[in-house]
Design brief:
The protein has 154 residues and is α+β, with helices and mostly antiparallel strands. It contains four helices and ten strands, in the order αβββαβββαβββαβ. The N and C termini lie far apart (54 Å).
Length: 154
């Protein structure tokens, strides 16, 4: 009898911990500790961004923190064709956005914070010239609703 009670409480605790929704927003440092760097000498990314994104849970109101440098931009699109082409040439003004750190200097460290404001598929890359995107500086993710957007992002 005591074993059944203990087992029942374990099941209840498990259900409670798996059903609880997000209660706060999260800052995700893109690429983890290696950040969002690209080695132009070898045309390689600092990390496998697709693998990194697969291990994350993204929700409305979160931020993606890109630690990169001033010769890179961050492109966010909701258009899979634009993402797959690694080009903004045929992008629409209402589905593709470019972020940069605002510095005119070249090669300096910078941080770009991109708010997660749309549910569903979001795609990120550096498609300014396509080279970085074609060589792995790109990933897609799916954004959950979890919490409402904070007023500052509405």
């Amino acid at each position: 009898m005591a074993n059944n009670v203990v087992f029942s409480w374990m099941v209840v605790e498990l259900l409670i911990t798996t059903v609880v929704a997000a209660t706060e927003y999260t800052n995700h440092t893109v690429g983890g500790n290696t950040g969002g760097f690209f080695d132009f000498a070898t045309n390689t990314s600092a990390t496998n961004y697709t693998s990194w994104a697969t291990n994350q849970t993204f929700s409305l109101g979160d931020y993606l923190i890109f630690r990169t440098n001033t010769n890179q931009t961050v492109i966010r699109t909701f258009n899979k064709t634009t993402f797959q082409s690694c080009s903004m040439d045929n992008a629409s003004d209402d589905d593709t956005f470019q972020y940069n750190g605002g510095s005119a200097a070249f090669g300096e460290s910078q941080t770009i914070a991109v708010p997660v404001t749309e549910e569903g598929s979001n795609y990120f890359s550096d498609t300014n010239d396509g080279i970085q995107c074609q060589n792995g500086l790109a990933f897609g993710n799916s954004v959950n609703h979890d919490l409402e957007l904070p007023p500052s992002l509405n």
